[in-house]
Structure formats: structure tokens, C-alpha cells
Amino acid sequence: MFVTISYMKLFVLTFVWVAYVRCECEISMEAADKCGMKMMLFGNREATAPTNDAQLDNFCGQARTNMKCVSDFNDLCLKGNVQMAIKIALNNGKKYMDKRCNNPKDRSDFMKHVQCLSPKEKMEPFHVCADKHLVMLSKLRDVTKEDRVPTLCCITHLSQDCLRKQFQSTCGEDTANYWDDSWNELVEENMSFACSNYDSIAKCESDLNPTALKTIKDVIATDDAAVLAQRHKFKSEISTAVELMEFFD
Q1: Contact status, residue 236 vs residue 39, Cβ threshold 8 Å
Q2: Helix 237-244 and helix 29-38, axial crossing angle in degrees, nearest 10
Q3: pTM to 2 decimals?
Q4: Where are the domains of the chain?
Q5: Are 12 and 190 in contact (CB under 8 A)?
Q6: Does residue 17 sit in helix, strand or coil?
């Protein structure tokens, strides 16, 4: 999760606002998307969970480097409200990262609750949750305009639930609660603003347009490799957001 969670906040912000992309840009979308992926713990199959202080220092350093890459792309290549939304998400992600990397207690807690993800193979079910998240986001293009923001809220709930179930299975209830709190720390403010009418999976199931609900629940329930392979068009939420902007004008 880690920096990944800040991108959930990015989507809540970005799809409530209108976005624009600059015509002149020296950083490619592909390069920025790759940096966005490398900031992620889940959804980046090259990532390994840090199990000691040296590995955590390296993890934090790599996250900062790739965050700078995304920030440069945002400053040079985007404009308007999408640029503002990404800047806010990056700033909040930096605060979150600095807290886990620099504050002794938070650093210790993070290490305690990430070690259960080693060896690397244990992270695959979490990567699948990230795959499903990106595929669900791509389905927003098939949702009616008035249902897109509510559907986005429900995607966020389903993605969190997917990760929570994996943490419960792999690491236990205490660690699942830790990551739930971490998720909420980053998304709660904007979820409260944009998703007050869809504040839980139960509300989504009762109030979301049934067609939109089925579209995203079919993704979260699938183990079909062909469906999940659609994720690989996007490496991170950066490219997903830019591509989907036109559907939120």
C-alpha cells in the first residue's frame, strides 16, 4: 500500500474536478507511469517488503526518487485541476512516507506490519488486488456520467476490502487493522467530501446503479487472467487518471 494509498486520494480529487494536459512536455507518460508504479508496494511485482532497517532505508529512498519523477511530470506536463489534485496527493503521500520512514515509532510499527509479506511470493495476492483496482477504474468509461463518481467511491471500498481480506489471511487481524488505519489516514478526508452517500460497501450495494455495481463487482470477484491482464495497459494510477479524464468533463 504505502504510497499506493495516496493515489486513491488522487482519484477522489481528480474525478471531482476537471483536468487538462499540456501539449508541450519533455517527460513521457510511459516514464511517469513507470515511476508511479515503482512508488507502489502493491501492484509493483518488482517490490519486496523491507524486513530490516537497511532495506527500509532503501525502500524509502526509492519511493522518494520516484515521487520526484512523478512530481516533475506533474509540474511540466499537466495543468489545471488535475495538476492540483496530483500535487495534493503527492504532498499527502510525502507526509505519510516521511512519517513511516523517519518517525521512530511509526517506522517500527510499519516494519512490524510489513514483515509478514516476506518472502516476495506472499505479496502476489495483494498485487492481484491492485490489478483488480486498475481494471475497475478502466470500467468507469462504461458507466453513465451521473454514476461515475459514486462508482469511483465504491471501487475504493472494494479495493480496500480486497486488501483487508488478504491481510487477514496472510498476516492476521492486528496487521489488517493497521493497514486499514493507514488507508483511512490518507483517503478519509476526501472520501467524506465526495463519497458521503456511498460510505460503505453496504451503501454501494443498496444505492449504486445496479449495472455499475455489477460491472465492478464482476472484476473484484474474478480470477480470470485475461480480465486482469487488462491492468497491464497501465502501470499506475497516473496514466489511468489522464486517460480517463475525458469521461469526467
Answers
A1: yes
A2: 130
A3: 0.85
A4: 3-248
A5: yes
A6: coil
